[in-house]
Specification:
The protein has 8 helices and 17 strands. Strands 6, 7, 8, 9, 10, 11, 12, 13 and 14 form a 9-stranded antiparallel sheet that branches. A 5-stranded antiparallel sheet has the order 1-2-3-4-5, with helices on one face. It folds into 3 domains: 8-76; 81-146, no CATH class; 158-304, no CATH class. The N and C termini lie far apart (73 Å). It has helices at residues 8-12, 65-76, 99-103, 107-114, 122-125, 212-221, 260-269, 300-304; strands spanning 18-20, 26-29, 38-42, 51-55, 58-62, 80-87, 90-98, 128-132, 140-146, 152-165, 171-180, 191-197, 200-206, 227-229, 237-238, 249-251, 277-278. 19% of the residues lie in helices and 32% in strands. The longest helix has 12 residues, at 65-76. It is of the alpha+beta class.
Length: 306
């Protein structure tokens, strides 16, 4: 019977499900949030680095069990992320990047990280990159924007779908793209949202780092009678009174929120408040529009009616 050289993963990570191949040369550490799993391979004929840990775009060869456990811990605790660079949607190169670098990410920082800061510049060989973590809430795609003054900036990118409600009441799902600067302290930070409907693209632009004004302008630019139906425009889509990041709202569809203090108490009294987190552009069947008749801790309706 083949010896299972990967069985140590079960005792090292008892909180996670570990699945083994029949010949015990492959083990999958299952992500409980249905995000990307970690796969570990054992190469019988490799005497130097028999283990290979694969996550998302990246893999690392390691020499022993201790190194495998340490590396996996860095991934699942959010200390390390996979990063991959692309040119014209084709993979070029990648590696791992630490959480400390991501907190203050800039184009100059990525040049130093990649090593392309000499005669060959990073933007000359890559036009985009993707970051992936164990918790998908930290995942993002981004593109490089070359400015007219030869400076290069990073804009994060989301490509997904959003729901529109037509004058007939019919709901349609259409393509959406959000492109934004990731800097809440920059007064010139920009967000642009684009949706495509019936062969026409409609845009909303804004400077609010929480995207409120961009969503409001997009709604104003849509054809008459067509409404954005998403958490940003929903009466249950509240922001956090203690501070928010972009694309983050909290759903209170099971509660009757009447003021900001009630929302603060809800946060203070239950650790499960953050289980209510939703993306700003998501939609569910409980959706109802914001209005003057219902309190929502969210400036969208105010900005829309300016």
């Amino acid at each position: 019977m083949t010896e299972n050289k990967l069985c140590f993963l079960k005792s090292a990570f008892p909180e996670y499900k570990v699945e083994f191949s029949d010949d015990f040369t492959e083990a999958i550490l299952v992500n409980p949030n249905y995000d990307e799993n970690i796969t570990v391979y054992y190469y019988v004929d490799d005497d130097f680095s028999p283990f290979c840990v694969c996550f998302s775009f990246q893999h690392r060869h390691l020499i022993d069990e201790e190194n495998v456990i340490d590396w996996i811990n860095k991934i699942i605790t959010g200390k390390k992320f996979a990063i991959e660079f692309f040119q014209n949607e084709q993979r070029k190169f990648g590696g791992e990047i630490g959480a400390d670098r991501l907190k203050a990410l800039s184009y100059a920082e990525l040049e130093q990280f990649s090593g392309y800061y000499g005669s060959t510049k990073l933007f000359q060989i890559a036009d985009a990159f993707k970051v992936r973590g164990w918790d998908s809430a930290n995942n993002f795609d981004a593109i490089f924007i070359c400015e007219s003054n030869w400076g290069t900036t990073i804009k994060k990118l989301i490509e997904d779908n959003i729901t529109l409600i037509l004058p007939t009441g019919e709901k349609v799902i259409v393509p959406m793209q959000i492109c934004w600067d990731d800097n809440e302290n920059d007064a010139n930070s920009r967000c642009e949202i684009c949706v495509a409907y019936n062969g026409v693209k409609y845009y909303g632009k804004g400077t609010d780092y929480l995207w409120v004004d961009a969503f409001a302008q997009l709604q104003k630019n849509l054809p008459s009678g067509i409404e954005l139906a998403c958490c940003m425009t929903c009466r249950y889509g509240n922001m956090c009174p203690y501070g928010n990041k972009e694309n983050q709202l909290f759903c209170t569809k099971d509660l009757n929120i009447v003021d900001k203090m009630q929302l603060c108490n809800l946060i203070d009294e239950t650790y499960k408040f953050f289980d209510r987190e939703v993306f700003s552009y998501h939609y569910c069947d409980d959706f109802l529009y914001q209005s003057d008749d219902y309190y929502t801790y969210n400036d969208y309706f105010l900005v829309l009616n300016k």
